[in-house]
Amino acid sequence: MKKFAFLFALIALVLLTVVSVHAEGEFVTDGDTLTGYTGTEAELVIPDGVKAIGDEAFHNSKYIEKITIPDSVETIGYNSFCDCTNLKELHLGTGVRKFGDNAIWKDYALTTITVDENNPYITVIDNVVFSKDKKTLLLFPDGYSGEYAIPDGVTKIG
Hints:
Blueprint: H1 2-18, E1 21-24, E2 27-30, E3 33-37, E4 43-45, E5 52-53, E6 66-69, E7 75-76, E8 89-92, E9 98-99, E10 112-115, E11 122-125, E12 128-131, E13 136-139, E14 156-157
Parallel strand pairs: 3-5, 4-6, 5-7, 6-8, 7-9, 8-10, 13-14
Antiparallel strand pairs: 1-2, 2-3, 11-12, 12-13
């Protein structure tokens, strides 16, 4: 029985070492990927040094109203900001270049998306995010009101 308990403890220690997930304040990270948020702040600034926002990292975060994503972030994963019902503003830094499916979805209060003007990969026109060459529409805010005409030259959505 002692051998079994020792073996179980050893396996648990190895697993905890291999899966090095830790919390930085209210942000949960795995290496340089932000995987979750447990806080209740209305305005968030993602920590500099984060390179990716993982799948569903902010899913169902009801308190967030404004998020600033730093220049270090390159990718925003699947459903990262899904169902953030109070999210109104999103700022994307210079490094953001790739979005997972439904990265922003069911965020019905979201009306303002800005992109750092020095971002070489994406741009924003009237709160709608496009590839820098304006051929791909990447993100459309769920809170957009009124009619929207897709600009001439757009050949892909998503």
